Amino acid sequence: MKRRDFVSKVLITGGALSLGIGCQRKIEPVSGGEQKTTVLLSKAEGRTIKEPEKQIPVLAETDVLVIGGGPAGTAAAIAASRTGAETYLVERYNHLGGLWTGGLVLPLLSTHAVDKQKRRKQVIFGIGGEMSKRLADLGMSIHEINPVVDPEAAKYVLEEMIREAGVKMLYHTWGTNVIMDGNVIKGVFIESKSGRMAILAKVVIDCTGDGDIFNLAGDKYDVMNYAIGLVHRLGNTDRVNTKKNGYVRMNLGDPTPIPGVNWVNMWGKEDQNALDVRNLSKLQMDYRKEIWESVQKIRQVPGHEEVFLLDTASQLGVRMSRILDGEYRLTLEDTMTYKTFNDVIGISGAWTTIMYKGKKIPTAERPLWQIPYRSLLPRKTDNLLVAGRCFCFERELVEDTRIIGTCLVTGHGAGAAAGLAVKERENTRNLNTEKLKLILKQQGAWLG
Amino acid sequence: MAWLKRVLRLSNLRGFSALLALVLAIPFSWKGLTGFFTWLSPFLMLNSIFSLKSFVWLNSIAFLILVIVLFRKRWFCHHICPVGWSCDKVSGFSKAKTFTYSRIPDIGRWLVILSLAAAVVGIPLFMVLDPMAIFNGFFTILSGKLSPAAIISLSGFPVLLLIHLFFPGIWCAKLCPLGGLQLLIADLKIWFIRFFRKENIEPAAITSGRRYFIMSGIGLMAGLTIPRVLKLPSENILLPPAAIEPVLFNSLCCRCGNCSRACPTGIIIPNTDFVNVLAWMTPRISFKSGYCLETCNLCSQVCPSGAITLFDVKAKDQLFIGTAEIHLENCLLLNNKECVRCKESCKFDALEFVAEENILNVTPVVNTKKCVGCGACEVICPANCIAIKPLQI
Fold first, then answer.
1. pLDDT for B371
2. B41-57, pLDDT tens digit by residue?
3. With contact defined as beta carbons under 8 Å apart, do A346 and A440 qualify?
4. Are A268 and B315 an interchain contact pair (Cβ–Cβ within 8 Å)?
5. Cα A400 to Cα A413: distance, rounded to the nearest angstrom
6. Could A254 and B309 be called an inter-chain contact, meaning their C-beta atoms sit closer than 8 Å?
7. Chain B contact present for A19, CB below 8 A
8. Looking at the complex, does the CB of residue A34 fall below 8 Å from at least one CB of chain B?
9. Which pLDDT does position A36 carry in this prediction?
10. ∠ Cα B198 B201 B205 (to 5°)
11. How far apart (Å, rounded) are the C-alpha atoms in residues B319 and B373?
């Protein structure tokens, strides 16, 4: 081949190729520079001060210690105490039930779900079911599916059940630090009007909701910022005069078991850090002001003169904060595919429509789902169990895990497991799950 | 082994090819390959490249076939074409076996000239007559619940077979534009040989250049005038992401139904609105069965004509199908219910909750710059108060 031929052929091929590549058709993403956000620290932020060492009195040496008296903590304490273990329950407010009662989030959601035969039925039994039934017997709950309860009745019923179970109750008390021996939790320091004290325990259950205890114990977690609201109740909602001149229908929330009293939910501000007390305090003040003003506005609308603000919730409606990095992370797929676990501790239901694999699954078609014992176990700390909204699950599942019903289920499971661990003198990690399931069944739980 | 040899004989290739085309056309789990045979059609490839002035790498398969056809006359018809194979089989049952069509002109060839000439300057004309598109289009009826009108419109393939019971072989011999293209290539080859080698071969076999000239002229005129004459009626139609502008889209789309069959959520369905006849059976989006997944570009991968431009999954935030419209009357959040399903489902961060006067009245607001109209919120909304609306052009 002549050199000229060769060069011209190379040129032609190259030209054709470059033309070809130039003509290729594809829409590519626009690469945008990622913006960096810098966090400004206030001057005091970086400063620390050393707390002096001191001897702390030991209040008690017990079998099971439950920190947090919300739905999960109450169920856990009752379950543990019923297995025969000596149980202490530490609660920071003056009532049991947490957000269910003090937060005025009155509906006990996800009591029902669809089983494999496509029948929608009740799934939450056990201690949670007992509470729900006792409230219904008192006439203090409305609706059969996802009942709405009266908060004062719930506080009373929960306290009665704690009393009957023989749980030792500590109100107005915070769990402030952990007592560790290597990776094993040995107890918790508490703080109250009596000052700082210690409770030593064989098993500790973290039902703080924010995961304060596993955080202090040094376990890993994710932080999920979510909307924070504040629920309030309106009185005299049955005395609205719809016939009055100039009447306009106002949003007065949803009925509660008490006639004339409605509860009003608030979604609140998005993306809030629930672990920053200054933020919580600011939200609390802002929300109370906004609620007051909103109710005054309602009262000015003709026909609504007698409506009044009954109360704002005594607890801020924190939806999510920490999520444990536990031994098993429950996934949305698990809950949508009837996945069964050998170490199942409870079954929960569904209360909302959800998107799964690009398809809409309405509430009435959503399957029941099992919760494994492993998702309550932290990876690092021994003899610590986590129940309530901060146990280990994937974020897509948050709507189903953060609600009262699921908290009751995980609480019951954790309490029974703690009781069994004490009875068998066994580490929580090596528990015989068959025996655990037996205890749960004896306590009325439904495991499928 | 004799039977194996017999089975593997080249003359049987077309039977296997037809089987393969059938398997690929029926949407199984490997949806990226559905309608792969449309990529083999040089007719679709040339029309697509001529009108879009660009190509995708898969076009090279059809180009390769074009090169083979240059050396082996009607190679595609003899060895690949599933439609030709089925037509021949059906013709075997026909009683009118001695039928000849010598008096009918080569319609297919003229269709090709018209279509390609028009494609160069504007829009291609006869994309819908491509046999691969007809074949694959038929199997779209398996992809989901379609209206009777759509099913009838998609039944080109069985109708073709029916015709062959009465007029055996007529499609392949005279009508098929894909066959016509191959004849054209053969003519071109002879013309080239005559022009460059100055050899005089088969002067009788070639159609006169004047007819080609006239036909190309008509095609060019059609391509230039038709898009200007067409006035699109204002339609309420959502097109798939990365669909090209509507006039060219309607004519470039070969109605093969690949996108409908490939769509994992089944939201791409044939358009059966009577508003615009030219848009008949083009793909459109209906969010009844799901939404446009943020992790999917299958419709653009399988589109042989380029009516849906190939796009990168990461580019989906620039591909606007429509925009979400929220009817607040029924919104659960506004009624203090614990519902943020729309915001959760939005993968493009296009929904914001705004507290206008009071934190108790949080309203979902669509950021129209970010909302691509993927339909996730429309699908999930428990109160059915969100709808995707087409963008106003």
1. 93
2. 999 999 999 999 888 88
3. yes
4. no
5. 17
6. no
7. no
8. no
9. 47
10. 130
11. 9
